[in-house]
Amino acid sequence: MTSTVPKNKKKLSKRITAVIVTVLLWAFAAFWFAPIFWMLSTSMKSTAAAVIETPPQWIPQNPTLENYKIIFAPSGGLSLIRATLNSVIVAVSSTLATLVLSIPAAYALSRLRFRGRMLIFWIYVAVLAFPAVLFLIPHFFIINGMGLSNSYLSLILPGLGGTFGVFLLRQYMLDIPRELEDAAWIDGCSKFRFLISIVIPYIKPAMLVLSLMTFLGSWNSFLWPLLILSKADKFTLPIALIRFSAGWGDPYRGIGPMMAGAFFSVAPSLIIFIVFHRYLMKGISLGSLGKE
Amino acid sequence: MRQSHSKSPRSFRREVGSWLFLLPHLFFFILFVAVPLVFGLIISFFNWSLLKENVFIGFNNYVRTWNDSRFWPTVQHTVIFALISVPLVIIVAILFAHILKKKRFGQLWLLVAFVSPAFFGSVGILSSWKWIFASFPSGLANYYLDKVGLINNAVSWFGSTSVAWGVIILVTVWWIVGFSILLYLGALQRIPPEQYESAKLDGAGPWKRFIYITLPWIKSVLFFDVVRQAILAFGLFDQAYILSGGGPAGTTRTLVYYLYLVGFERQDFGRAAAISWYIFAIVLIFAVIQLVLVTKSIRSTEG
Fold this sequence. Notes:
The structure holds two protein chains of two kinds.
Chain A: H1 4-32, H2 34-43, H3 48-51, H4 66-72, H5 80-111, H6 117-127, H7 133-145, H8 152-156, H9 164-173, H10 178-186, H11 191-202, H12 204-220, H13 223-228, H14 237-244, H15 255-289
Helix pairs in contact in A: 2-15, 4-15, 5-9, 5-12, 5-14, 9-15, 12-15, 14-15
Chain B: H1 2-6, H2 9-43, E1 46-47, E2 55-56, H3 60-67, H4 71-101, H5 107-115, H6 122-132, H7 140-147, H8 161-188, H9 193-201, H10 206-233, H11 238-244, H12 255-265, H13 269-302
Antiparallel strand pairs in B: 1-2
Helix pairs in contact in B: 3-13, 4-8, 4-10, 6-11, 8-10, 8-11, 10-13, 12-13
């Protein structure tokens, strides 16, 4: 009996410390995430006076959605609705095309035997280390030369040669048990049927990760669309927002609507992260170093 | 003899069949990766523009860039940025990964706060930070720093070079650290807990446990992250373009910013292409140096 009392006490104090640490971490996390809160908060303040009020109002006194109405009302040929639609079309097409191209390529490089396979694989890996900036100028001329400037294709095509997806999917495919494949051969299963009915179900999590990363990459892409798009009707969301903030020179008036636009552009990424964070975590650590 | 046997029509057909799976992707790879690399190299040897005829000028673009008084400052800025931001991101990421390793109540909230910004687009994030670092007194940074007495007057954050760089580095770490956190978190979770326990029994403190257990286990991820971040750091553009506009007086212009100005404002594409190859060369050197340093420091702790 006497010995259990200090043990319990120790346990209790340990638990209290754990609770305090957790609460402190929550608070620190809130501090770390404050720029997003501030963005949301500012976006719901409709008057310049409310925006620059001191002390800063983290919870707006008269929250309104006025700024969101402003950004979605087309002005000067610039429409955020149109830009959002453009971004969705480009991001979804990029994602689907990347999957359709990368899955069979990864399959060939992981499960099939043919001459030149390792050479191609190492070229694909080496290219991952090339900075994106090397491609800006040649892509600009290739896309212009194809007569594709200011088109959806100008935003979709250049990314399709990327090898990250092939690399990521290959890592997963290497894991498929040999016996499964042998059994399929004995059954007279063709390579194509094996890919469809065994490989694809097996790599579904990796496909999800690749889809999410391709989608977000396209959704967030900035420098390339900035260079290749000159007509407002094809602007993607980030480009439309940057053009929108050109009125930033006036220190106060544009802030509310700008923050509304910023939050609107960030929200889908936030939702995707919350829903799929487990897959993202696993996929990223796998895609980076492969199996160990 | 045997070789000719293996080249029977059937195995040949099988090989062709295998290539067919690769071919669609390979087509796009050649068109948008291989060809652009060669094409970019060719452009860099020409006086290349949209309107006039392109003239071969040999290494002229490289020489002119080398002698351009605006080129070297951008190299210097970007190198300093990389030297500070890369280690900083790695340290913060490893620290946060240790915090997140232990599952707590409200784990998702911690993940959202520390990790999710890495998945947000630059324009949204940076315009929020630009508003926080507004130059007027009611800007969030000015207001709170004044309140706690760290500054006396409203600071024009992008008005002085060192302060502007400080903000750019701070925002960059905040923004991109999440991706590295996930890398290290994945690596930490693979370490068998028994190793720590036996080290604890041997009386090893937290620092020693980190050096002798954690570091060797996360080594390969660390290598990968260092190279990845070096590539990222030398691609720095969005932060400078959106936050500081390259100012004051061009002192926050980065290499990619310089390329953007030469290529797309001045339309001197040949020189812009040459700049991109300079960037590639610097990234390569930097990545190799970093790798050597990291390898050395890990070897020395192991030995």
